[in-house]
Amino acid sequence: MYVNTTFLNGVLEKEVYMKQYERFLSSDGGHFVYMLNKSIYSLKQASHQWYLKFHEVISSFGFKER
């Protein structure tokens, strides 16, 4: 199975913040910090969060671990 947006489907359990990229300054020149609602590729937790979501969905179809 190949999924393009695999790591973008994980829901974060803890608050994770990200600095705004230097290239993307606001019109007033301010710098922002963003709180992430979902996982992104560069997070250390991304693969674990995706596994938890995948396990939840597969288990809901009746599959069981051996």
What does it look like?
The radius of gyration is 16 Å and the shape is elongated. By secondary structure, it is an alpha+beta fold. The protein has one helix and two strands, in the order ββα. The chain has a two-stranded antiparallel sheet. Helices cover 23% and strands 23% of the residues.
Summarize the structure.
This protein has 66 residues and is α+β, with helices and mostly antiparallel strands. Helices cover 23% and strands 23% of the residues. It has one helix at 46-60; strands at 11-19, 33-38.
Overall structural class, as computed from helix and strand content, comes to alpha+beta
Compute the CA-based radius of gyration: 16 Å
Total individual domains: 1
Outline type? elongated
Helix content: 10-25%
Low-pLDDT stretches are none
Number of helices, counting only DSSP H or I runs of 4 residues or more = 1
- Which strand order does the major sheet show? 1-2
Biggest sheet descriptor:
2 strands, antiparallel
SSE order in H/E notation?
EEH
What is the terminal-to-terminal distance?
A: 20 Å
Q: How large is the share of residues in beta strands?
A: 15-25%
Mean pLDDT: 79
